[in-house]
Design goal:
Leucine Aminopeptidase, subunit E, domain 1, binds adenosine-5'-diphosphate, about 40% helix, about 170 residues, alpha/beta
Length: about 170
Amino acid sequence: MDIEMVRGDITRQAVDAVVNAANKSLLGGGGVDGAIHRAGGPRILAECKVIRAERYPDGLPTGQAVATTSGELPAKWVIHTVGPVYAKSQDRSHLLASCHTDSLRVADELAAQSVAFPAISTGIYGYPLKEAAPVALRAVRAAPTNVARVLFVLFDEASLRAFESALREEQ
Ligand code: ADP
């Protein structure tokens, strides 16, 4: 698997699937979630509502992923996953890892070859970048998947630096 990192806006990526750092409700939010729904249009929310009603009446559990089509986005699919809220007193890294593993499992079901991830949980959910980046990277690296290309799309310089440094430390 090829792992790349770029600074940019995930809504602009022409990959097979982009991952959304959603919340349990699947009904939209701020950060990446807001950007994806704004850029992709109402079709994504309509599909999320059906998924809620049919499969997850209590919301999507943390660490799990589901897919919708992508409306107006250049990507073909949106994979929605719910990252953990950071807690100093409790290690939730297995949930953050699971977001990546389960997103790649869903990507395999869609036969997606290329997948873009944002820095899940590092915005509103408060995960420190330095802790999140190696967890994300290791989970992607270890996932049993046919996805050939994973692109981490980092919104600002600090996020890009944290992910690049996690990549260097891996080697
Ligand atoms: P969470 O609730 O999981 O913390 P957020 O969406 O608040 O998710 O933030 C996750 C990361 O995504 C943050 O680093 C934020 O800066 C970044 N981000 C926000 N908008 C975009 C975007 N359009 N493309 C890529 N990353 C984004």
